[in-house]
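Researcher: I'm preparing a figure for a lab meeting and need a structural model of a single chain. I don't have an experimental structure, so a prediction will have to do for now. The sequence is pasted below. Please return the structure as tokens so I can convert it later.
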Amino acid sequence: MKKSIFGLTLSAMLFALCFRAEAQPQPKAPKIGLLRARLAASGTSLEGFLRELRALGYIDGKNIIIESRSAEGKLDRLPALADELVRLKVDVLVTASPGETLAAKNATRAIAIVCLNLGDAVANGLVDSLARPGGNITGFTSIGAELVGKRLELLKETVPKLSRVAVLWNQNIGSTQEWKESQLTARNLGLQLHSMEVSSADKLDPAFRETSKAGSAALIVTRSAFTNSYQKRIADLAAKFRLPAMYGREDFVDNGGLMSYGADDAEPYRRAASMVDKILKGTKPADLPVEQPTKFEFIINLKAAKQIGLTIPPNVLVRADKVIK
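Model: Understood. Here is the structure written out token by token.
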């Protein structure tokens, strides 16, 4: 009888322990809100970020929840989408450009924001300083505006008799800064610039026709959410109008562009994913310095050069980090 009572008591205790264990609430999966200007295509910045996040062990729907919102090219929708993500109580907001970051900043001063490309973050007013961001924003800066001068120099060396260059830009914060910086550098290089301000895809073809009539003999494409969304189309138009073009991202060259000079495209993904990981583990964004690129690459596409009848000078070719034949 005693053994039976002991057995029943033990069973009841084990049952109670199991019940309590099952009744314990499971840890809440953190939410990451992705705010994007346009739907992401394969290989774009936010896709690269998600890939790096998975490498750190974060699986959407398992130990993390991804809430994604896209303005689908209608940039005036960004503020409302940012507000929507804030109402969902995401733990971190992730953006890919200064414009998206500004919309997120206006929506919240409490939720951490990590940006893959802050542009000139201090001049943009997004952070107090790179070393001490000071608010709820941190991320990675591509220092795109500072590199415009180098791109113009390489373009002039590639086309020795170059005198007039078109600059494709729009009202995106980073793109505007690159346009302004290009004007300063152009004067020092003795180059005239033709402004190609384009705000929508339907204006690309007319802008290229006007540029050709204006006598521009080469093209600089600034970095922005808009230009990144139409990489192949821009590269195809540059080839159609036989414009040697310089880009700030390697993936433009992968899509048929002639040349690119800029920071390693994969670096921001790794850095931003690491920042999100630290924030989810308790670090404040104000304590995470804005990081800068450490590796720069000059890439030439000889196929694209042949298509427009351009011979790359040996002194330029030898400086390339990568040549596509």
